[in-house]
């Protein structure tokens, strides 16, 4: 089968968000369960995020990355304990990759007044741009996708037969990171260089907006051993499950490998991923009887520990090795 014949399912979430008839919610829960079991990914409409928010966000991303290089470098995420701020093109190199990612990115997260837990919580770094051109549209968008991420978690846990009430603990003070991305045109990348090399997402639910018409995302379908291209359609979101979900669901939901190649010779590509991980002290809501009480924080440390400046007390507090 050629990859062109394979497609991710498109799920209308409005039946869950605004149910009109009995059974609407159950139908959506079953569709999401099926898609995440098969692909670990699906596309969605009826998600409740307005076009105004989406357009405002994409415009803000462009404004940000159009700033002079020196200005962007002053906002480097490497200088920030919470890893908020700017990541230059060429900074991400995964084990096994020959070349680093061509993308540039900018990270924001929960806006907590003080740095806590060695940086999982803390304030954001905002660029020196008029608030209505960046901070306001970006923050409004962050909150909307934060909500959508929570809704997807709710659906996922119900798909495994658990009550929504489990979300209270899980979403108390959730780690929600947002990554705004710009991929350079193909003509500006090295031969064989990816926008983002093949990877799985680390954690919980990813809510991904792609710039309409700018295809480039490909998802690995294990069963067919094929890369499935994902179209970038206006007002259609891509949702996927990270490694934490795969682990906590006992493999019932997949965390699929994916990568990005911007094939446009002369045009950049924008995207934005919101990662809803959950409260750092919360444990598995996909199996409340899981005897392994590992928390979101412990898993985050395992994966990103060497990237955050983790104080020994914090490692100890969550039972992670020093
Ligand atoms: O830009 C995209 O379409 C995907 C980005 C992605 O996979 C990631 O940031 O984890
Ligand atoms: Fe990803």
From TrEMBL:
Transmembrane segments: none annotated. One of its GO terms (biological process) is small molecule biosynthetic process. Keywords: Iron, Metal-binding, Oxidoreductase. This is 2OG-Fe(II) oxygenase. One of its GO terms (molecular function) is oxidoreductase activity. Belongs to the iron/ascorbate-dependent oxidoreductase family. The lineage of its organism: Eukaryota, Fungi, Dikarya, Ascomycota, Pezizomycotina. Residues 173-278 form the Fe2OG dioxygenase domain. It comes from the Eukaryota. The keyword Magnesium does not apply.
């Amino acid at each position: 089968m050629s990859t062109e014949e394979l497609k991710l399912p498109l799920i209308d979430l409005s039946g869950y968000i605004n149910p009109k008839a009995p059974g609407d919610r159950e139908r959506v829960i079953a569709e999401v369960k099926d898609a995440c079991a098969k692909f670990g990914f699906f596309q969605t409409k009826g998600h409740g995020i307005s076009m105004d928010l989406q357009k405002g966000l994409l415009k803000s991303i462009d404004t940000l990355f159009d700033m002079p290089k020196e200005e962007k470098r002053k906002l480097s995420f490497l200088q920030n304990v919470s890893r908020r701020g700017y990541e230059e093109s060429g900074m991400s190199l995964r084990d096994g990759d020959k070349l680093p990612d061509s993308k540039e990115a900018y990270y924001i997260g929960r806006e907590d007044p003080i740095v806590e837990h060695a940086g999982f919580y803390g304030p954001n770094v905002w660029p020196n741009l008029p608030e209505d051109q960046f901070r306001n549209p970006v923050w409004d968008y962050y909150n909307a996708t934060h909500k959508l991420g929570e809704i997807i978690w709710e659906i996922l846990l119900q798909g495994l037969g658990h009550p929504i009430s489990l979300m209270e603990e899980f979403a108390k003070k959730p780690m929600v990171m947002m990554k705004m991305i710009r991929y350079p045109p193909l003509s500006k990348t090295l031969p064989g260089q990816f926008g983002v090399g093949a990877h799985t997402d680390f954690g919980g639910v990813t809510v991904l907006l792609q710039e309409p018409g700018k295809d480039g995302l490909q998802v690995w379908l294990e069963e067919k051993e094929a890369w499935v291209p994902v179209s970038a359609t206006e007002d259609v979101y891509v949702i996927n499950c990270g490694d934490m979900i795969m682990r906590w669901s006992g493999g019932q939901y997949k965390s699929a490998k994916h990568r990005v190649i911007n094939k446009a010779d002369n045009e950049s590509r924008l995207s934005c991923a919101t990662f809803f991980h959950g409260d750092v002290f919360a444990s598995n809501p996909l199996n409340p009887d899981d005897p392994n009480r590992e928390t979101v924080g412990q898993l985050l440390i395992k994966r990103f520990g060497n990237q955050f400046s983790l104080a020994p007390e914090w490692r100890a507090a969550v039972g992670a090795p020093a």
